[in-house]
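Q: Could you fold this chain for me?
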Amino acid sequence: MTAGSPIRLFLSGCQGRMGRVIAGIAASDESLTVVAGSDLKTDPSSPFPIYASPRDYADDPSGPDFDVLIDFSNPSVLPDLIGMLQQKNKPGIICTTGLSADHIGLIESAARVIPLFRSGNMSLGINLLIKLAGDAAELLYPDFDIEIIEAHHNQKIDSPSGTALMLADGINARLGHSLSYVHDRSSVRQKRSGNELGIHAIRGGTIVGEHTVLFAGGEEVITLHHSAQSRSVFARGAIAAARFMAGRQAGLYDMNDLIHERFSESD
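A: Sure. Below is the predicted structure, expressed as structure tokens.
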């Protein structure tokens, strides 16, 4: 990538909801261009070549070069995707949720040799919510019980959402990992224990994403809430991450690194 030239994007999962939103944003932004993508679905009318998998792109000697890969696909694609990024020595933005411990281990291992950015939610607002929830937990716990409620559209596969787990992990880290996650109380007939952190999922309609952290104390309740109005929120966050990652050294980055850099630049 040369100074002043557009950032060349590779979209993994380019035919999915998020892939199409990112492609639409890039099409109207002269500083970005989508040069290729991968998806099980193909489209002969696509303005850029679509490969059935990242491996197919890696095996194509005439494939267009790119600067950063953005992944909104499926966890099953991750091994081929990481292999392609290592082969090409390129940075990647991993936005896919529902990753297993093995997937996360693969990302952490690959980040020793290539630059990778991973976040369970690409929204700047959500990542600020995580910080605020952690601040509140430090002040309110154990006098307040903490519950997380998330709601998404009826097509979402994983539950709870990756964002809900990010919130839970952020709160738990601030409290010295003293909380125990409880996902379902329907089969347990007993009082809530003091160290529980309840996580609840709602699926229905076309809800883009709702996350609420509830702090319930004696005769008062405090709620922190984030509502995503459209998928453009996550797409723009992924694009911000792509700008951040272009030209980075090997390592594992996340939204906190991006936010920290932005705040540093504003000082």
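A (continued): The CA atoms of residues 144 and 220 lie 9 Å apart.
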